[in-house]
Amino acid sequence: MRPTGRLHLGHYVGVLKGWLELQEREEVLFFVADWHALSTSYEDGLDLRELSVELVKDWIGAGVDPERSTLFVQSEVKEHAELYLLLNMITPLGWLERNPTYKDLLEQMGKKEIHTAGFLTYPVLQTADIVLYDADAVPIGEDQRPHLEIAREIVRRFHHLYDRREKPIFKEPQEILSQTPRLLGLDGRKMSKSYGNAIYLTDSPDEVWRKLRGAKTDPQRVRRTDPGNPEVCLIYDYHKVFSDPEVVQKVEEGCRTASIGCVECKRWCQEGIERVLEPIRTRRAELKEEAVREIVAEGSRRAQGMAKRKMEEVNRAVFGAER
Q: Which domains does the chain have, with CATH numbers?
C-alpha cells in the first residue's frame, strides 16, 4: 500500500479486512510501497518516512499482527530496485504501453505530469516486489489484474532468456480477488481524500456523525413522512456493511414505510461504524512511535534476508557466476 495519506473506511472494507483473514491462514508480507508513491506523487513534497510510520500504525490498529506477518518498507530493501532494473532490461515497451490500467490512470490524473518512465514501468517494479519473495498469490482488486498478468509474462520471459533449470527461479503469482464491493464516499463518488467524502479510521465519533449527517440519502424522501427506497440510499449500503442483520431489516422496512427518519437511520449507522472504529482508534493510540519504527526495521531486515537470497539466484542466472 502506498503511503500517500490517512486510511479510510473504504481501505478497511476493500483491503484491510481481506488482509486480516489472509494472515490467519498464510505467511504474509505487507509492505509500505514508498517507491511506488513516487510514481504519481514525486512532486507533491510528501514526507514519506513519516507517512510510512502512520500507515503502519493504521495497519496495526486495524489488526495486522507483526508477530504473525512481516511488515516492512519497500525502500529499505534495495533488492527491489536491483531486480526492477534487471527486469526492465527484458520487458518489451509494448507490454507496458498496452496496459489498460496505465491508460485509465493517465486519463484520471488529468493535467498532472505523470508521463514518466517510473509511471510507465510501475508494473515491472510491482513484479519485482512480488517475485522476490516467492509469493504464491497477491490480494488485489479487479483493476490490478492486468498488472499481475504482466508480472506472469515477465517471469516467463526471464525464464526463457536466463533460466534453464528444472525448478524455475520465480513463481508465477496468482491473484486473490477481493470479494468485497467497493464502499462509496459520502457523496456517492469513490471514497477519496481528494473528494473530501471519506470517513477516516482515526476520525472521532463526533467527526463521524458530522460527516454522516451530511451524507446523501434517497432524494425522494423530502419529508419525514415520505416513504423511501433504501436500495438507492448510500446509508443503506453502509448498513449492509457495518450493521447487524436485524438492524438492516429494520432500516429497510422503516424506510419503505416512513416509520423511521433519515436522522434515526444515520444514528444506527454510526453505531455500526463505531463498533469497527473504536477498537482501531484504541489500538492505534497505544502504539509508541519507537515501537512502530522497530517493528518496521525488524520486518525490513527479515524481508531483506529473503530478497538477498533470491537475488543471488537471479544474478547467477543472468551473469553466470557468483558476484
A: 9-183+288-319 (3.40.50.620), 203-283 (1.10.240.10)
